[in-house]
Amino acid sequence: MDERLTQASSIIGYHFQDPGQLAEALESAGVHPGRPDGNKRLAQLGDALLKTILLDYWYGSGHQMVAGNDLVQRVGSNGSLTEAGRVSELDRCIYLNPSQRGGAAPNVIKATVTAVIAAVWIDSGRDWRPTEQAFRRLVLGAHHPETAVPAGMPQLLML
Q: What pTM did the predictor assign?
């Protein structure tokens, strides 16, 4: 397996049955001629999965609606997901278009984070357990608990 795939797999703690799923998740637009949009389709699915995971945590906590919205805004924001990609060093695994000089742009990193979550979801046969584990390692693991968890949210998110 390619070194970037091995590193990304290690970061999220998941071994892919089909490494092609992970490779697609790490591709920025324009890298692969057969996929001109790169990982954007997976990223769109990953956005929905990320919100579902966050809102499932919130719902189980019994907190008010505003806490759920705050959780999605803080942890699922572009800035937060870009930071998660950088802190975890997933950004170093991205296959960049040759025109993207100087490293991955924030929107590319954010898309890659969510695309990787979706890739785990698909590769695992749509199993929540490894998907949530990858989310925890990649997104929650990249933050200090006080920035990842909105005020008043229980220890539930830091398991």
A: 0.86
